[in-house]
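Troubleshooting entry. The earlier prediction with zinc ion gave an output that would not parse, so I re-checked the input for stray whitespace and re-submitted. Clean input:
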Amino acid sequence: MDTRAAVLWKTHSPWEIEEITLDPPKQGEVTVALAASGLCHSDEHLVTGDMQMPADMQELLGFPQYPIIGGHEGAGTVVEVGPGVTSVKEGDPVSLGFIPSCGRCPSCSSGRQNLCDLGQYLIVGKQVADLTSRHHLAKDGTDIGIMCCLGTFAPYSVVNEASVIKLEDDIPLDKAALVGCGVTTGWGSAVYRADVQPGETVVVVGVGGIGINAIQGAAAAGARHIVAVDPVAFKREQAPLFGATHACETVEEAFALVGEITWGAMAEKAIICTGVAEGSMIASVLALVSKGGRCVVTSVADIKATDVTLSLFELTLMQKELVGGIFGGANPRKDIPRLLRLYKEGKLKLDELITSEYKLEDVNQGYQDMRDGKNLRGLIRY
Ligand SMILES: NC(=O)c1ccc[n+]([C@@H]2O[C@H](COP(=O)([O-])OP(=O)(O)OC[C@H]3O[C@@H](n4cnc5c(N)ncnc54)[C@H](O)[C@@H]3O)[C@@H](O)[C@H]2O)c1
Ligand SMILES: [Zn+2]
Ligand SMILES: [Zn+2]
């Protein structure tokens, strides 16, 4: 099939719209016609190099990571199934989970699909079945990788059945797209990884597509105070519409505010959702957290970064927890349909998350708007 896609040829360069050819789906794969794709910050890490595989790893694999088609937050309709596919058929509406879930590996079979063994291929760019490509440059056949085993910056993609979750027929696919990454990651960061309990005080640092959903998740879990922290005024204005009770510009400001509203006890939970995770911010965010409290790092850091500043004294003697989280600790096969059901019943906001829509050709504008703090979420509609 001939189609087109937004391709990144190297770090620190714009997305280029290229004519591509798609092979038919092989064993266990499906072709999906995308309805929409969200513009998540994680694709920006491919641009900045934060998600660039180390050279020795690329050498070991025997193929380069770039060129790569971006996009890992999508939904659409199955248009062709390869041999052996059993969970979907042609015409089915599907969400594309950015983390594949095979259902059989130790993590999947113990209820932790977000840690599926196939996750090892997230930034490798190839098909999980055989580490080859179904996506090629039309003019010379060059193999092109796909972000998170998906490549949703294209009207069509070939993906493994492990990345595909069948949806009910009446779900609007543009909204379902957002649940493939940002909504579930943010909501789950609060509900599962932070394990927010009714009556708790929660701080969400960074109010983008992920943080705004961490706010929704904390509100759904019954938090008493939800403090949104973001330097951008638009984000602080939006936060209360999703359940934030307070908003401030910096973590330092939040420290004073949280001290005041908790009478010095501080927040039970803090969730880091800034554009890039930085080791230098951990000490100040951990200081927002009470004894016995927990700080969740959902933001992605530079793959090469290893330095973290924090008070180990505080960590030990105040029994604080610092934890990571992928896909908000959620199970894609359970939680994607679950969140979409909440949306249908008016208990989860999705329509309000989409600040601006773009054509595929305008993907670079979409990312500029994200960098400029103009979007809760930008969306490409096909
Ligand atoms: N762990 C996962 O499974 C997972 C999944 C998706 C995205 N992510 C990561 O989550 C992060 C957020 O993604 P997004 O799409 O919401 O990004 P975004 O760019 O939409 O939002 C980031 C927000 O952080 C704010 N910010 C930046 N520096 C800040 C600071 N020092 N203090 C407070 N706020 C600050 C920005 O103003 C912006 O509003 C990214 O690192 C992304 O890669 C992780
Ligand atoms: Zn994402
Ligand atoms: Zn698995």
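This one parsed fine. The pocket of nicotinamide-adenine-dinucleotide (ligand 1) is lined by residues 40-42, 45, 181-182, 185, 205-211, 229-232, 235, 273-276, 298-300, 325-327, 370, 373 (CB under 6 Å).
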